[in-house]
Structures
1.
Amino acid sequence: MEFVWKGYRCLYLENEILRIEILVDKGTDIVEFLYKELDIDFMWRSPIPVYPQSKMIQTAPAKLGSFIDYYPGGWQEIFPNGGSLCEYKGAIIGLHGEVALLPWEYQVIEDSKEKVSIKFYVYTYRTPFYLEKIITVKSGVPYIEIEEEVFNLAGEEVDFIWGHHPAFGQPFLSKDCIINIKSAKIKVVGGDGKSLTNLKQVEGKWPYVEGIDGKLVDISRVPDKDDNVSDVIFLSEIEEGYYEIINEKLKIGFFMEFPKEVFKYIWFWRIAKGSYNYPWWGRNYNIALEPFSSLPNLSEAIKRNDQLKLKEKGSLKIKLKAGIKKI
């Protein structure tokens, strides 16, 4: 079903179990991932208001680009840059790239009792890419399937970072949640803004990392909403392209499957009111577990030889699966 919300074309895709809301005109963001039986939405809603793009005038240029000003929470496609603003072959690319701020087009491929499949597609404007994805919801199935392909339209080889940025919040998220990841290497870096943390900026092995008190902290346990922490954590050497977040009290969880040969990292962002000053001002309680091809940002990834690349007229396909897990 298509509808318009604050000037944005939106779509609902749903079956008997779940409903997802997609902002077609804003990056195909998934801003609702609802489990109908318990009426629980897994997605986090940002405290930054959503304004119609056609009517909002930014009061000043943003140092990192416009991503935060137009960030509603939920799940974004991140491409062709991940992380802070950078310059690539003369193009300035802002925080988290281009496609999360672009209007996409769509085409209904199938709309039957058995399944609904919709193709979304977009051209980037500062870089020479075309991206399309098919999102499918099947009857009686508690997850969505995503098939994607990126095309290099240039007459030369191009580099890029690719990722997915789902953020989770209340009422699903709580101290009763545990993150299940098989095995990974941990690296803790500074959080957003003026941040507090209970972790040292060190490396570790999932799920333990050294805390500021010298004791090991189990970061698979989600902090409580008032724990006053904020961290950005990079997981590498992941054993499998899969994670799940389980709320042990509600007996429900969210899982994602992804190709780890493409998405070699999981970026782990967690805030429990601990990020002060711009942009979060001590307001947030959320986590994000983000499959990414590279560490940030594109120019730095190229120096590390950590980026993805496509030859002239080349393409790359991936498949994702994400949905509800009952325990």
Note: The chain has two domains: 1-162+309-327, 174-292.
2.
Amino acid sequence: MRTIHILLTSLLLLTASILLQAQTPKELWAAANQAYSESRYDEAAEQYQAIIDEAPELTRAYAPVYYNLGNARFKQGELSQAILAYERCLRLDPTNKNARFNLEFARTRIVDNIADTQVFFLRQWTLMLRNSLAEHVWMWLSIALFAIALISLLLFAFSHSLAIRKSGFYTGIVALIVSAIAFANAASLHHRDSIRAEAIITRGIVNAKASPDRSGTELFTLHEGTKVLIHEVLDGYANIEVGNYNGWIPVNTLERI
């Protein structure tokens, strides 16, 4: 009797899995939103994740899916997964104010014994500016401004009007400088997303060590949801940086953004 019960349960789970896979992203989206509205957060999170897993390439259109996934994970009490989802949403759509607000709120729940370090304000402003737009937006902005700079400098070179020449010169120089800044931001974002060095701690408590092995001296402790920067991976350990601290933690205790 027990064997029959196990077989029936397995058959039901297999059938449910097949039906889930057969659903279109639009159907999954509707079902996930319905489950979320009915406080069935586990089911909603599973369906949001299924939409993402089936995507051949994640574009800005998937940012709302990550946003809703983050909300569902937060309701489940899965802080690190919620932060991870919000971070990925903002990678796809840096202008999503709701995701940014929820990310900042989720970060207030992080428990950590590492003191905040002061980052040079110009560095903070530079990162805020870079992260305010997506890579493709910065690239198109750079191209458009370069075209404006080229036209303005041509007016400066060939116009007979002194006023037009002055306007063309100053407009061209400013447009060229801003174009270079936009290009630098696009290149920086491309590099960031290519190497995927930023990660989120997904374990409750992680002890960072001085060397990539179990016998290494414990240096400091990290908690679930903390954002770190990965420098290298060796023998199942990642060399990470957070604030002014550096240490080795197991790779399976974090997930790249």
Note: Strands lie at 198-201, 205-209, 218-223, 227-234, 237-242, 245-250, 254-256.
3.
Amino acid sequence: MLYLAFESSCDETAVAVVSSPDGSDEFTVLSSEIASQIDVHAKFGGVVPEIASRAHIEAISALTYKALADAGVTAADIDRVAVTTEPGLIGALLVGVNFAKSFAYSNGKPVLGVNHIKGHVAANYLNGRIKTPFIAFVASGGHTSIIKADSYTDFETVGRTLDDAVGEAFDKIGRRMGLSYPCGAEMDRLAAQGDPKAFKMPPVHMKDGSFNFSLSGLKTHVINLLNTAEMRGESVNIADVCASVTAVICDSVVYQLGQCLKRYRVDTLLAAGGVLANSHLRAALTSFCNKKGVDLHIPPLSLCGDNGVMIAAAAKYEYEKGLVSDMSLDGRPSSKDDWKSY
């Protein structure tokens, strides 16, 4: 079966053609196209929703035909159409949803709405069948969630950030230090050069027995640290700040995931999202899972950020469970906690 999948929840327009036989866990990526908007938003230090929506409109049609051409197929060859419907920037989502519905309707194909967070988790499905139940950790610029999954389609959110997402915190802290947008990659590089114990940072995991996170306190702490040094005319080693911030985030993530795996007696962990491109977080999770005998799955770097392949992978299992959408499909800025199917 051939899936044409669209992702436009934030600042990247992505289209992919993926082949996967029904009832199989095998995937063949025939094409994966991504139009990034990083250069467009860099001057603003973050994503501007209206500009993002317009950029999606400009890119999505040509990108779709390029994905089809690179895959060596035509619109008639596509069996199913998948698209991200939530959560994300509503204007950006609507571009993808409406284009996908139009493509599906004009070509007589079924359309499937996919939750963006489910999509990130599904990037791990391309490595073969994963034992369920599992715990999934998703971290990106807009999302930080811990999920208990009883199957590839049955998800329950058991932990989340109460304010800033991990990637958002990296960007805001990095911007205050004068790093170029997006700041995550630069902070990762500088953290390798700094001392992770140079500054005492507040943990970002909640201490109330939940699996939640709060990163606004860390962000405020670092900004105050930098402001105080500036007022005193003192210099601050930026690499040390990056290393200290990265270390406390990694420690808190590992702690919460360890507690979660223990409570639910699960020994399989999936990690996904753009922040999983961070080398220190990948290393921390790998070290923890090796020590605890946990089966860890992290996508390759090419599938950590937003992409159409992950949406196709999630859609496959939604379809096989009978979760097909119709032309009333719409975009939603927030994800429903009950993971209601479409």
Note: The domain at 131-302 is CATH 3.30.420.40 (Nucleotidyltransferase; domain 5).
4.
Amino acid sequence: MNLWPIRIFFILLCAIGGYATSQVRPEWIDSPLQGFFIGFGLGGVMIAIDEMLKGFSLRVFSATTLGLGFGSLIAWLVDQSGLFEFASEDQRWLIRICLFLAFSYLGIILAIRSNKEDLALLVPYVRFQRENKPVGLNLLDTSAIIDGRIADLADHRMVEGVLIIPRFVLRELQQVADSADSSKRARGRRGLEMLDRLKQNQKCEVRVHEIDFPEETGVDDKLVSLAQSLDARIITADFNLAKVGELRSVRCLNLGALSACLKPTLLPGDVLDLRLAREGKEKGQAVGYTSDGTLVVVNHAADRIGQTIPVRISALHQTGAGSMIFADATHSNGQSP
């Protein structure tokens, strides 16, 4: 959020206030112009203090106040202990100032460095719970939107928090949908349909974020920078983006990795129903695919192509392109023919 319009308005109010003070109390300020500049200067000082306190959280402010209070209390106790009765009144004044500054500084530093468990020791039997829990933010990239599985996860309430779609991701998706390449155009239109499905879903909250990063050239770099700025998680189907995000300490949910983790484990001897799609390379073989796309080669089933039959897994073979399953056709009772 750009605060400079509010700051400029505040400085103008201070300047007008200084001018009005010179009119009401001329004995305080010699001239209206002087009053105007005094108010303008005070407003500028407040803006400078605001800039210096950027990132100063409420927890740090509370800890600072607590540390200042305890430091002042200890300084007062030391002053009242009688250790400095020999000093004159002028010396006592200087001693009090030094005690206050020293113990206040130590109290503030110790309070800032402490955690909530340390503070709980000061107020025993009291535990503070956060009433407003932070809302999880999830940034969607173009690949996750086109993939479509995020819409299914949202339908089943498996995505917590707010789904955020940056404006630059929408622009990229629109460019894909307007591409001259028919395959890219189909992918882009599918992504727009998934976006409309997400926005119509009452089980999740979808927002469009307007911030951009002109210094970043690529959409992926902008997405990672935005995730760092918002402390958000990136949901993507792009393996490379997920790796780049991890290298830059950004939380990423790779839909492909999630799907691999949820894929059922098949072992030799298991029986599953499989639709045979085409002939295999060897004589008498037929080929089918599991729901996750794993290739299954079925022996002695070439005459049953186009049918859904029970098959018994005989062996698993891992290749560079993925897993391959070998199976035998069975009867409905699970026995091989």
Note: The first strand starts at residue 137 and ends at 140.
